[in-house]
Amino acid sequence: xxxxxxxxxxxxxxxxxxxxxxxxxxxxxxxxxxxxxxxxxxxxxxxxxxxxxxxxxxxxxxxxxxxxxxxxxxxxxxxxxxxxxxxxxxxxxxxxxxxxxxxxxxxxxxxxxxxxxxxxxxxxxxxxxxxxxxxxxxxxxxxxxxxxxxxxxxxxxxxxxxxxxxxxxxxxxxxxxxxxxxxxx
Length: 185
What we know:
The protein has helices at residues 12-28, 34-44, 46-54, 164-177, 179-183; strands spanning 70-83, 95-102, 106-111, 120-125, 137-149, 152-162. The protein is α+β, with helices and mostly antiparallel strands. It is elongated and about 55 Å long.
């Protein structure tokens, strides 16, 4: 993201975590600044911190995830199936759906069409419909889950190829929507 996160604006709980990391890093490196410690904490520890505090259900598959999942409702379009998990079929037309939750590593969406696990699909996430400051994101992803739901399917995908600008857009969206957890008190 373009703007650095300011340590002094963070919640007390996060400041405490960064201070602990700062002490640890300071003992390893002579001139560690709080800005460097803050950047390191957000890069290496933030997702774990979010998962420990805000993911529901001990023993669930959320414990296995590397990234915090944000519950949302965002339009998504599957543009193309590049590799179908079974028969390498092609989509006749774009398939639209609604994202249920999203993280830096993937998302879960509702679709009227099932996708085979291990299918490689090309998707567009329509961020601009809900936040004019964000761009749409195009990504390649692998279907890792397909659940039959009442009236549709739940598709879990893991991003396999996404441009840095797309990653920053997803990060910005998630940070904007959980800012009260980071800055609130």
